[in-house]
Amino acid sequence: MKKVIIASTSTVFGGTYLDYLLPTLAEHFKNVSTLVFIPFARPGGISHEEYTEKVKPVFKQLNIDVKGIHEFENPIDAIKKAEAIFTGGGNTFVLVSMLYKFNLLDAIQNAVENGTPYLGTSAGSNICGLTMGTTNDMPIAYPPSFRTLGLVSFNLNPHYLDPIEGSQHMGETRETRIGEFHHYNPQSVLGLREGSWLEVLGKTITLKGDLPARLFQQGKEAVEIETGADLSNLR
Amino acid sequence: MKKVIIASTSTVFGGTYLDYLLPTLAEHFKNVSTLVFIPFARPGGISHEEYTEKVKPVFKQLNIDVKGIHEFENPIDAIKKAEAIFTGGGNTFVLVSMLYKFNLLDAIQNAVENGTPYLGTSAGSNICGLTMGTTNDMPIAYPPSFRTLGLVSFNLNPHYLDPIEGSQHMGETRETRIGEFHHYNPQSVLGLREGSWLEVLGKTITLKGDLPARLFQQGKEAVEIETGADLSNLR
Description:
Chains A, B: GO terms for molecular function: serine-type peptidase activity. The structure is a homodimer. The first copy, chain A, is built from 7 helices and 11 strands. Chain A has helices at 22-28, 48-60, 75-81, 92-101, 105-113, 123-126, 174-181, and strands at residues 3-7, 34-38, 65-68, 85-87, 118-121, 155-157, 189-191, 197-201, 204-208, 213-216, 223-225. In chain A, the strands form 2 sheets. The first copy, chain A, has a 7-stranded mixed β-sheet with strand order 3-2-4-5-1-8-9. The first copy, chain A, has a 4-stranded mixed β-sheet with strand order 6-7-10-11, with helices on one face. The longest helix of chain A has 13 residues, at 48-60. Chain A is of the alpha/beta class. The radius of gyration of chain A is 17 Å and the shape is globular. Chain A binds chain B through residues 9, 11-14, 42-45, 90-91, 93-94, 132-142, 145-146, 159, 161, 164, 168-172, 176-185, 194, and chain B through 9, 11-14, 42-45, 90-91, 93-94, 132-142, 145-146, 159, 161, 164, 168-172, 176-185, 194.
């Protein structure tokens, strides 16, 4: 059965790396003893090695051994044989460029459809949507396409940020940007606030965490979605 | 002589469209009676016609007639024959996609190098850099390349935003994003705060407006650049 966690952020304000998700991950990765980590998004430009070292102690608490995908001779094979997959955050353009470079999109898609449990945070969540067209990141690398995994039939906007009241900044709000997206793209966009995540179990998609999410659909007013909502039919 | 204004924003907080730049534009577009406007970035998804209508009254005050590039049979020819060019803000991905679609990048580059005065605001400023790799916009369209006009030998970040003190948001700051850019790209990046602009006259590039700009260079600490500074040698 398909098992996916799509988290807005790895870290909530005042927390440590993945700590708020730990009980969820214990359940999600139950019966798993090894995990393949995809560190390609390289937040702040840290190395694949450094990023993997940061992730290891968290999963150690769940008795899961982490190996970075860069450590494997054959990355496609590593994904095929993985017991579990985690794609970390950072820059989505860099991440997607690397996934295309190593021809990994189809491999991950197939593994997840066949039941390999997947965790994404931030950029690793962005790629769970149909395209990376609603990322917040800077285009610091040029991927061959914006098409991504399509583990859900809509797009995601992690780190969703409400307009800042009283702001004197004239740049676009997140809501304006997603509105512009809908002038060119039909799919729904779910703005996931930090601390929220989607749980995908088979065909069932549920909003989890303490906060509501914000749903944007072409030609409609944006609406708030309460935690616990069933989003299985969202397109 | 090359004459370019590269403005962070069209509108400053509390102001009206282009009002803060009007005295500068009167000088910049002296002896000009017609201007070709490039509305392709379509802020908020407005039509090319609506956007052009918004621009006309501003230039009317300078006795300049505005025609949108979408009104011309042959856009390349329109740029070649233009007395002046203005590219407005909106979404940089959409703008650059359209410029490639109509094969306009070389035409604009040549016109500007040959002395046609150019004004860019926001997305229209982003494209004055070597690449659009430091835009803040969402990738809602997929351009065939991120290469842009290169009217200056560095990159620009319009609407530059300082980290918000006390923010509990865990998404990257603008400074972090530009730092990540420098892991993959060598060129300097100038963060232009709203109300600032660059004036390019021949080979001389000068920072104008009331605020300092923030300069990011690969492998160096970011520094503040005072208004009035000569940036002619920035690479």
